[in-house]
Specification:
CATH topology of the largest domain: C8orf32 fold
Radius of gyration: 24 Å
CATH architecture of the largest domain: Roll
Strand content: 35-45%
Shape: globular
Length: 497
């Protein structure tokens, strides 16, 4: 539900108009209805609509509807979320629609019974169904080329959790109070997503021609903070992520009226510099003054050193990546975790293993193996922002994608040949721009047994240049969203070849 579902960084939330069909059978008849739960749901029936904005320009909308329904003759609660998004990514038009229906039981704690999600991006369709079969939950993902099925754990989110949140808001709260719960996302490897609600204050605002009492709350997921104004029943009234992403409660008709001119999200989210750097490949080192409107713990490494400046700003020195004379191996538990296959990165898939083995050939060191994987991906994948994928097998099917697809495929192929790898993200210099800018970018790190080294298959770099500034480690590290649109960088010095 909108009042308890965390908003994720991606604006690609969409709409699919066809009805959802249910074919599985409920194993038991209607149990005793939880009347307290039913009363709570009846207070929340109806639809809410939101306009989604980026830099003040409307780029999409989403709706959230709660209604009573039936599943094979059994009374259930249906929550339907629909979204639509249209914008430019580096000049490429991207249009995304999404429809998700979640069915909850009305007995006990109100467990999730079934989820169906249909995602359409630039005409490509992906369907996910989570259902209870043979004593457990199964997630089936269907694309044009493949059907994947896996047994998963029971969803932890319940209607009782939603009801407890509403009660928590209504009771006397103090700044800093925390409510812990889970939201469910079938798009993630672990769809039980820990979520924290951090209370800030209660205040009155002008809305709908009168005064409305709302709660200021930060919703935290994977380190990202979603600032929200919640009404007393928990419904979202307004939300903001970073400094440029906004969600505004609007009438359904107004929410669906988008701006005529498409917004280029690459340009609007880029960080402006005060000096041109030229060809980033030639940059050996870059020293910057870093200021953010929010506290942000910038990762440090052998190539990324941060110190405090005189005015409490940060001074960062970024170097082209390099090999250390001495290093440190990974602890066995960490190495095992980084080599474990996942839904998005199926490194044990026979197709993936065979391809990775063929690519590395007779390479003897992890560095040489990684370099060959970088070169193969750079050579064989079309560079486009209009063919997104969240699974490495999909990337191989399409042979195309932007930096995230290139990075996901690298991580998967590297893991397939025993090289611990992870996605990292941050910003890197955009060559050829009239106004010097750093754009948000993704690349990879791999461990060669001694140290973490970088690999950017999108730019064909095994040791990245001195403009790659890392802000995150791993695909679920979303703390960087907190500084989106709020970064100020000034060039102190840079060295070139």
């Amino acid at each position: 539900m909108k009042n308890t579902f965390v908003f994720y960084a991606a604006l690609v939330l969409g709409l699919f108009q066809s009805p959802v069909g249910f074919s599985f059978k409920v194993e038991s008849k209607q149990s005793q209805v939880n009347n307290e739960l039913l009363g709570f749901i009846k207070d929340h029936l109806g639809k809410s609509s939101y306009g989604n904005y980026m830099g003040g320009k409307k780029v999409g909308w989403d709706t959230d509807e709660i209604k009573l329904s039936k599943l094979n003759g059994v009374d259930v609660v249906s929550q339907i979320s629909e979204s639509y998004f249209k914008a430019l990514f580096g000049g490429n038009k991207t249009e995304v629609s999404d429809r998700t229906e979640v069915l909850y039981s009305l007995d006990g704690k109100g467990d999730i019974l079934f989820i169906k999600s249909v995602h359409i991006e630039n005409g490509a369709k992906k369907t996910r169904e989570l259902s209870f079969k043979k004593g457990g939950f199964t997630l089936v993902t269907t694309t044009q080329n493949r059907v994947d099925e896996k047994v998963v754990s029971k969803p932890k989110e319940t209607l009782s959790m939603q009801m407890d949140l509403a009660s928590w808001l209504k009771s006397k709260r103090a700044k800093g109070d925390v409510f812990n719960c889970f939201s469910t996302s079938v798009e993630e490897d672990d769809f039980n997503v820990p979520t924290r609600y951090i209370y800030k204050s209660k205040k009155n605002i002008q809305a709908q021609g009168g005064e409305l009492s709302v709660h200021e709350v930060d919703q935290e997921t994977h380190g990202a903070l979603f600032y929200s104004l919640l009404e007393n029943n928990g419904r979202l009234h307004y939300g903001r992520m970073g400094k440029i992403i906004e969600y505004r409660l609007e009438s359904n008709d107004f929410a669906k009226k988008l701006d005529d001119n498409l917004v280029d999200l690459i340009q609007i989210s880029a960080v402006t510099l005060d000096k041109k750097l030229g060809d980033p490949v030639k940059i050996k080192s870059l020293k910057l003054s870093f200021k953010s409107e929010d506290d942000f713990d910038v990762p440090q490494s052998h190539r990324q050193i941060i110190v405090k400046g005189k005015d409490n700003s940060l001074v960062m020195e970024i170097k082209r990546d390099f090999l250390l004379k001495t290093g440190q191996p990974l602890v066995p538990a960490e190495q095992k975790r980084l080599l474990t296959p996942s839904t998005s990165s199926p490194s044990d898939n026979p197709k993936v293993v065979a391809l990775a083995t063929r690519i590395i050939g007779d390479a003897s060191t992890d560095f040489e193996k990684a370099s060959r994987i970088v070169k193969w991906i750079f050579t064989n994948l079309e560079k486009t922002m209009a063919k997104n994928s969240d699974n490495a097998l999909d990337v191989l099917d399409k042979k195309a994608g932007d930096c995230t697809e290139h990075t996901l495929l690298f991580v998967t192929l590297a893991k397939a040949v025993g090289i611990p790898s992870r996605e990292v993200g941050g910003i890197a210099y955009m060559a050829g721009e009239k106004i010097p800018k750093m754009a948000w970018h993704a690349w990879a790190e791999f461990h060669d047994g001694k140290q973490w080294l970088t690999a950017d298959p999108t730019w064909n770099q095994t040791l990245v240049d001195g403009t790659h500034i890392k802000f995150s480690e791993g695909s679920t590290d979303l703390k960087w969203l907190n500084i989106l649109g709020g970064l100020n960088l000034q060039v102190i010095d840079f060295q070139k070849d």
